[in-house]
Amino acid sequence: MLDSLKKIFSNEIEPVSTTGKSDISREKSAGLYEKAKTYFPGGVNSPVRAFKSVYGTPLFIEKGDGSHLWDADGNEFIDFCCSWGPLILGHNHPKVREKVVEVMQNGMSFGAPTALENELAELILKHNKFIEKLRFVSSGTEAVMSAIRLARGYTKRDKILKFEGCYHGHSDSLLVKAGSGLVTFGETSSAGVPKSFADETIVVSLDDTEALKKAFEEFKDQIAAVIIEPIPANNGLLLQSKEYLRFLREICTQNGALLIFDEVISGFRVGFEGAAGYYNIKPDIITYGKIIGGGLPVGCYGASAEIMGSISPDGSVYQAGTLSGNPVAMAAGIAQLSELLRMGFYKDLNNKTEEFAESIQRFATARNYKLKVFTIGSIFWIAFTDQEKISKAEDIDPASMDKFKKLHRELLNRGIYLGPSGYEVGFISSAHTKVDLEKAKRAIFDSLDMVYNGK
Fold it and tell me: Apex CA 12: angle with CA 352 and CA 21, to 5°?
């Protein structure tokens, strides 16, 4: 391994075979998929799982442990999807599992308060200077939906401004895309979303200060909130500059609009305080997702005590949920977040990710491959581009996704699992070992050679 590392670091890359690996067996997964299509629309319960953007049928997963997954056909993979990010400790972490099993002995759902809610809330609030109170919900989508309602109720305004390329779940008012023009009302991106809902949502491009200025000029005193993924990671990794995010903070303050950071992906990923802490920018409301529950169905939104005072039963903004604060999810969250507070946890994880990304970039550069690896914290994105910066959705070349399809197939055949779309980012967990990452790098090198030179 030492010799291999020396060659990678020095750009002395060994020749790689241009013969593609045979496709892995998917016989059992394919059979399960055919059966699933008789039960579920498209055979899945979330669209991206259908593998429409990559080759082959979906893999049906049977087991996850540490950094590895096993599918129904017995194929083993090093997992860089991590349940779309929340599994920052990897699969089936013993401390999370033990805490969940302990709590489950006393029941799994009460629809009533438990001390576990207090414990997890205190753990979060004690180590996060950007929020004073929070409300647990059951998903990231629900957290964002509730944050939007809170912003409207608090400001007594109706319009929301969002950015093309940021995804905030599938609630109606945010399931919209930009029309043509610098500042547009959203156009519905799904059937079933009334035009009247989209008309309350303004959509502009990311990383465009002029568009923001124009939006506030056109809709002065009408915008309740601006919502952004401060680290946009649902449509590639569209990193924004700290200066741009500061400008966003300033223009919201000047116009009496609330700033919402959707940290469903970045929260607790790039640091315990998420992107707010990473950039040291205080939003008015923050939303978090399943990472606060060890990957179980949970989310939350938080803000100052004053803003959160608008939430029922203290205020007039109604939001409720039978499974909010579910004891099993709270238990998993307590165990997981306690691990994240260990000294050096994020430094080690982020350094590991940076070295992994830089090794892939060095290989691609040495081969003159048109490829850029973008990374922040423990998040990475492999983009088939020669652009040094991609900060807007429109900067992504759709044709580049053909190369990702090939890469995805080659990686599966070599035991590496990425999310089944070139627009999705990858994640590294504390469970990924040096051996895992070295094996993954070699698989990526081989696969890239196949993408660019294979038949």
Answer: 75
What pLDDT is recorded for position 172?
62
Contact assessment for residue 412 and residue 444, using Cβ atoms and an 8 Å cutoff: no
Same fold, 2-80+343-453 and 97-340: no
Q: Is there a contact between 210 and 182 (Cβ–Cβ < 8 Å)?
A: yes
Q: What is the pLDDT of residues 55-99, one digit of tens each?
A: 999 999 999 999 999 999 999 999 999 999 999 999 999 999 999
The secondary element (H helix, E strand) that includes residue 372 is strand 372-376
Q: Which of 104, 168, 143 lies closest to 330, judged by CA?
A: 104
Residue extents of the structural domains in the chain? 2-80+343-453, 97-340
> How many Å apart are CA 341 and CA 440, to the nearest integer?
28
- Distances in Å between the alpha carbon of 76 and those of 59, 64, 67, 88, 267? 11, 9, 10, 19, 29
| Neighbour order of strands in the sheet with 159-163 | 133-137, 299-303, 285-288, 258-262, 223-228, 159-163, 201-204, 184-185
- The string of DSSP letters for 115-172 reads HHHHHHHHHHHHT-TT-SEEEEESSHHHHHHHHHHHHHHHHT--EEEEETT----S-G
Instruction: Please name the CATH architecture into which domain 2-80+343-453 falls.
Output: Alpha-Beta Complex (3.90)
SS3 content of the chain, % helix, strand, coil (to 5): 40, 15, 45
Q: Taking 60 as the threshold, does the pLDDT of residue 180 lie above it?
A: no
Are 228 and 276 in contact by the 8 Å Cβ rule? The answer is no
CA 290 vs. chain centroid, Å, equals 10
CATH top class, domain 97-340? alpha beta
- Give which of 14, 6, 31 is closest to 445, Cα–Cα: 14
What average pLDDT does the structure give for the chain? 92
CA–CA distance from 255 to each of 162, 219, 225, 289, 299 (Å)? Answer: 16, 10, 10, 29, 29
Work out the end-to-end distance of the chain between its first and last CA atoms, rounded to an integer number of angstroms: 29
The answer to whether 359 and 428 are in contact (CB under 8 A) is no
Check whether 10 has a pLDDT greater than 50.
no
Mean pLDDT of 365-372: 97
3-class DSSP assignment, residue 4 = helix
Residue 15's pLDDT is what? 40
**Which are the catalytic amino acids?**
167, 262, 290
Distance CA 386, CA 407 (A): 17
What single letter denotes the amino acid at residue 409? R
